Amino acid sequence: MTEIGAPNRRATTFIGGNGGEWAVVSQRALLGPPIAAVSRVAMIFGSTPGDCRDAAWILRGVATNDRYTTREEKHSLVEKQVPIGRPEATRAALILLRKNADWWAMPQDERRAVLEEQSHHIAIGLRYLPAVARRLLHCRDLESEAPFDFLGFLDFAPADEVAFEDMLGQLRSTKEWSYMEREIDIRLVKPDR
Amino acid sequence: MTEIGAPNRRATTFIGGNGGEWAVVSQRALLGPPIAAVSRVAMIFGSTPGDCRDAAWILRGVATNDRYTTREEKHSLVEKQVPIGRPEATRAALILLRKNADWWAMPQDERRAVLEEQSHHIAIGLRYLPAVARRLLHCRDLESEAPFDFLGFLDFAPADEVAFEDMLGQLRSTKEWSYMEREIDIRLVKPDR
Question: Kind of pairing, strands B40-45 and A11-17?
Fold first, then answer.
């Protein structure tokens, strides 16, 4: 039987519990119900982590094709962005988002218009590259029901934390954010070894 | 532990084997490797079917938000389309598709331009509504690796089979189809009870 069960190579799994390289500094539910408070978060590439018996929660997402980005925007992003995991990036945020039914009922052109022409999501993000590195993951179309549509993992050096807050503040004031029905903001620090 | 395991309500599972309401009339690999030949296909709503021990293969996909459709196109589609499962729709096709890396590397605006402005995918499909009913499912972003990006299940009355072939022939001659790297066409009939 060829049941398809191999992990998706574009998947990333976050395990909340007592283990993992990231220590939780704060965990806030800005909109909608919270998830269990944890002291550590492990980030694992792929969708089938091994031992998760002690996990309070497991969240998965998949890095997908560009959903809204145009060629010109992609060119600017690729030119400026850096991958997550730089040694100096000892601060991070894991942002969990879920948009409402109105958002998902909109056709592609209208979602694009809200996201960029009205909210400047891509343009705002671009201004904070390469200080902030991002891994952006989609969860809505997994085969199992997910509590969030989108997981954003962003890491940065301590000196860039103010800039990161500034970026988040701008994004949260946009029209796009008016479609959010759930948002959880988990701040992380990589302890000295 | 809040591992997320409930089936996605937008998922559909196809089980190829010896059971199920659809009898296989033909099964052709048009591009890329075939999958195991089966005599029957079961279609199950949701992603966690029960007993699949006798299945030769299991394919899952999720009905997602509009990826390319504009408001105007969506309006036309919604006005004309009918759901799958009409009593007279005793013929069906299950089309399994995988696009190549070039397709997925394109930004949103370029994929849209190839799909519609250059290939008229939505416009072609629209001409065959409501004779052909469709359930269009995405697989690429499941948490487990999928052999196809897209599953199309289309059902129609026997009298509309010629029209259906005509539609498929038009789509297969488009620029969009030049990005396919795998295509399997399974034809189905619902036997008299």
Answer: unpaired
Please, which residues 132-161 of chain B have a Cβ atom closer than 8 Å to chain A? 138, 140-147
B chain contacts of residue A68, beta-carbon cutoff 8 Å: 108
What's the CATH number of domain B11-189, 3.90.420.10, 3.30.70.3420, 3.40.440.10, 2.40.50.140?
A: 3.30.70.3420
For residue A65, which residues of chain B lie inside 8 Å, CB to CB?
A: 104-106, 108, 111, 140
What pLDDT, in 10s, does the model give residues A91-112?
A: 999 999 999 999 999 999 999 9
Distance of CA B56 to the CA centre of its chain: 19
State pLDDT tens for residues A24-55: 999 999 999 999 999 999 999 876 666 677 89
For A61-189, which CATH class?
A: alpha beta
pTM of the predicted model as reported, rounded to 2 decimal places: 0.94
Tell me the two tokens of residue A3: 């049941």
Burial class (CB in 10 A: 0-12, 13-18, 19+), A67: middle
CA distance B18 to A113: 48
A67 Cβ under 8 Å from any chain B Cβ? yes
**In this structure, are residues A4 and A172 in contact, taking their beta carbons and an 8 Å threshold?**
no
